Amino acid sequence: MVLNGKVALIAGGVKNLGAESARELAEAGADLALHYNSASSKSNAAELETQLKQKYPNLKVAFYQGDLTTAGAVEKLFQSVLKDFGKIDIVINTVGKVLKKPITEISEEEYDSMFAINSKAAFFILKSAAAHIADDGKIISIVTALLGAFTGFYTSYAGSKAPVEHFTRGVCKELQARRVSVNNVAPGPMDTPFFYPQESPEAVEFHKSNGMGNRLTMVQDIAPLIRFLCTDGKWITGQTIFANGGYTTR
Ligand SMILES: NC(=O)c1ccc[n+]([C@@H]2O[C@H](COP(=O)([O-])OP(=O)(O)OC[C@H]3O[C@@H](n4cnc5c(N)ncnc54)[C@H](OP(=O)(O)O)[C@@H]3O)[C@@H](O)[C@H]2O)c1
Fold first, then answer.
1. Pocket lining: 15 vs ligand 1, CB cutoff 6 Å
2. Structural domain boundaries in the chain
3. At the topology level of CATH, where does 7-243 sit?
4. Which protein residue has the closest C-alpha to ligand 1 atom 45?
5. How far is ligand 1, taken at its centre, from the CA of residue 116, in Å?
C-alpha cells in the first residue's frame, strides 16, 4: 500500500485504460478522484464504484463529470477535487480522441475538435496540475505509439498528441525543484472500444502482426507502468515511455 494517503485524480478515469489505472492505484492504496465526460460513461462510473467499494472499503472514491476542452472546466475539476480531498498527489490524463482519415477529408471542425481534446485539454490539465499538485507529485499524460511511427491517415491524431511531449518536457523542468515527475506514456494500438470503429478487420490484423506475440496492447500492459511511474519509478521525469510490444522502435 505504498500510495496510502495519496490522492490520485484521473481524467477519463472510469473506463478502459483510465479504469484499469484506477484499479492499479487503488491496489497500491491511493484515494481516487475519477473524472468522466459523456453521460454514457456514468454507468461505467457506477460499475467501477461498486467494484472499488467492494474490494477496498476504506478507500475514498469520488466522481466528477466535465468536458475538459476549456481551461475553466479543467480548473473547476481541480478545485472540486481539492475541496473534497484537500490535496492532489497524482494526476493522470487519459483524455483523447482518434480520427483516421486522409488529410484531404479532414474538415476544420474535425481539426479543431482533435486539437481541443488531445492538445488543449492536455495543456490545461498540465497547467492546473502544475499549480495544485503536492510536492513529490506525479503527472502522467497518455499519448500514442504513433508518435514513434511514420504513418498516414492518423495525421490529426498523432499531430494533436505530439505537442504533449513538449508540454511535458517544459513542465518537467518547471517542477523539478518540487520533485514532481512529469511523463507521458505511449501505448500501442490498444484493445479497447476506442480503437476499433476506425479500423477494418485487415487493419486490426496488421496492427496485431506488428506487436510481440501477434496481439494488440492491453490496458493491463499499460496500467502497471503508470503505477510504477507513481511509485518506484519516481526518478523518471520529462520522458515519453513507449509500451507497445515492439510496434514501433521508439
Ligand atoms: N485504444 C488505443 O488504441 C490507444 C492507443 C494509444 C493511445 N491511446 C490513448 O489512450 C487514452 C485512453 O484511451 P482508451 O483506449 O482507454 O479509450 P477511452 O476510454 O475512450 O479514452 C478516452 C477518454 O477521453 C475522454 N474524453 C473524450 N473527450 C473528452 C472531452 N471533451 N473532455 C473530457 N474527456 C474527454 C473520454 O471520456 P468519455 O468517454 O466519458 O467521453 C474517455 O474517458 C486516450 O488518450 C487515447 O488517445 C489509445
1. yes
2. 7-243
3. Rossmann fold (3.40.50)
4. 96
5. 13
